[in-house]
């Protein structure tokens, strides 16, 4: 699977003047410089990735090390499992965390395919909950994984909850590429797909993210009807063709999303 493009901070132009704590922001940039492709880095590599001086990067790394978020063997630095506390603090504060999991587990048991919940952040989707089947899947996405919204069923379903003007702005800001021979890359065509998802209340994406992967999503809404998250199921197209997924699994998916929405609205 191609590497995701660097994340664009949608709040970058909203930074207040005197209340903006630059040292804190730099610390977050250091944390975000670590990734699956760079799990262990030298001081120089961290400085290069963040645009900080070596001295500045060193101070932040040593602070994170003192707090237990970074470990070092004297040359290479790496995040520690304690960094997960930051992400789980967010997840545990989300009502969807406790509400969605039982519905997702029941859905997986019924359709025998993996189920995920995701939210929109900028031009990406972020997975906040995932229930997998016991089947061996090439797709190894987990909680916290990010993918582009434009070529995923979760992403298009989440975009469908926004006004067209906002959708267009996000699509134009997306680093759109043909991830497979099936990927739609024209902004107008993508907007049409988002509008279709909005009209029908669900979305199916066939092999646009990854060859052989088909997925289908439905929205999770709050008591006002605003889309706050989405559920999807995904599988291999050679085992579950798109039409079969739609006919056999769409009712169960929509029921699960509706159940989560209703529980959140209580």
Summarize the structure.
GO terms for molecular function: DNA binding; DNA-binding transcription factor activity. The chain is α+β, with helices and mostly antiparallel strands and 266 residues long.
How much strand? 15-25%
Nearest-integer average pLDDT: 87
Poorly predicted parts: 1-14
Order of helices and strands: HEHHEEHHEEEHHHEEEH
Category from helices, strands and their pairing: alpha+beta
The separation of the N and C termini measures 40 Å
Order of adjacent strands in the largest pleated sheet: 6-5-4-9-8-7
Helicity, as a percent range: 40-55%
The number of distinct helices, counting runs of at least 4 residues, comes to 9
Number of strands: 9
Give the C-alpha Rg: 20 Å
Coarse shape: globular
Biggest sheet details: 6 strands, antiparallel
Protein name: Helix-turn-helix domain-containing protein
Keywords: DNA-binding, Transcription, Transcription regulation
GO molecular function: DNA binding; DNA-binding transcription factor activity
Domain HTH iclR-type: 21-81
Report on the architecture of this protein.
The chain is an alpha+beta fold and 266 residues long. The chain has nine helices and nine strands. The chain has helices at residues 22-32, 43-50, 54-67, 84-93, 95-111, 153-159, 164-173, 187-200, 242-264, and strands at 40-41, 70-72, 77-79, 114-121, 124-131, 146-148, 203-206, 213-221, 227-236. Mean pLDDT is 87; it is low at 1-14.
């Amino acid at each position: 699977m191609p590497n995701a493009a660097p994340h664009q901070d949608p709040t970058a132009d909203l930074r207040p003047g005197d209340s903006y704590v630059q040292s804190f922001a730099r610390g977050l940039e250091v944390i975000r410089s670590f990734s699956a492709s760079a799990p262990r880095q030298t001081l120089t590599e961290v400085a290069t990735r963040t645009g900080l001086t070596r001295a500045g990067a060193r101070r932040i790394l040593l602070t994170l090390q003192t707090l237990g978020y970074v470990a070092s063997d004297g040359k290479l630095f790496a995040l520690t499992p304690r960094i997960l506390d930051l992400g789980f603090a967010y997840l545990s504060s989300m009502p969807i965390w406790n509400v969605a999991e039982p519905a997702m587990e029941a859905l997986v048991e019924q359709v025998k395919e993996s189920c995920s919940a995701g939210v929109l952040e900028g031009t990406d989707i972020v997975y906040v909950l995932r229930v997998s089947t016991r089947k061996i899947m090439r797709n190894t996405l987990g909680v916290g994984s990010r993918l582009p919204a434009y070529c995923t069923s979760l992403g298009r379903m989440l975009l469908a909850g926004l006004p067209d003007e906002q959708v267009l702005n996000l699509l134009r800001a997306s680093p759109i590429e043909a991830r497979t021979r099936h990927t739609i890359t024209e902004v107008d065509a993508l907007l049409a797909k988002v509008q279709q998802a909005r009209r029908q209340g669900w979305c199916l994406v066939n092999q646009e993210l990854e060859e052989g992967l088909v997925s289908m999503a439905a929205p999770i809404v709050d008591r006002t009807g605003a889309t706050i998250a989405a559920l999807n199921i995904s599988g291999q197209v050679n085992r579950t063709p798109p039409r079969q997924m739609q006919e056999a699994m769409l009712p169960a998916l929509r029921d699960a999303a509706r159940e989560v929405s209703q529980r959140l609205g209580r």
